[in-house]
Amino acid sequence: MLFVLLLTIKLDKEREKVRLSAKTITLQKKFLRAILVQILTPFLVLILPLFYVGPSILLDYYNQTFNDICIITMSLHGLFATIVMLVIHEPYRKYCSKFLCRSSKVTIRSDHFYIVSTQNESKV
């Protein structure tokens, strides 16, 4: 959070000194929003379960179900952070959509059945 705040202040000061195009300013704002979301995701995934864990420890309250949910949520923060990164950054999003939405072509040749994809060819 501090990083994003300092970066925003620095970029605002630089904008006053140097004339930047509207496209550059738009790209900088877009980048800052993406970084902020990318920082907030693990922060929220790790902090929200602590709102239960902290008081439950202090109040000596034990609930196995809630404890398990908190541990699972906290252990999945890397997965959540990766998914958010792939969604919010356009180059990653484009590559993943191209990679995941790839269609295979089915071709029949004389006596063999082939599944042809863009990566490799397998003989069945």
TrEMBL record:
A Pfam family of this chain: 7TM_GPCR_Srh
UniProt keyword annotations, A-Z: Membrane, Transmembrane, Transmembrane helix
Organism: Caenorhabditis tropicalis
InterPro entries to which the protein is assigned, alphabetical: 7TM_GPCR_serpentine_rcpt_Srh, Nematode_rcpt-like_serp_H
Name of the protein in its database record: Serpentine Receptor, class H
Keyword Membrane: yes
Keyword Transmembrane helix belongs to the record: yes
Transmembrane segments: 31-54, 66-88
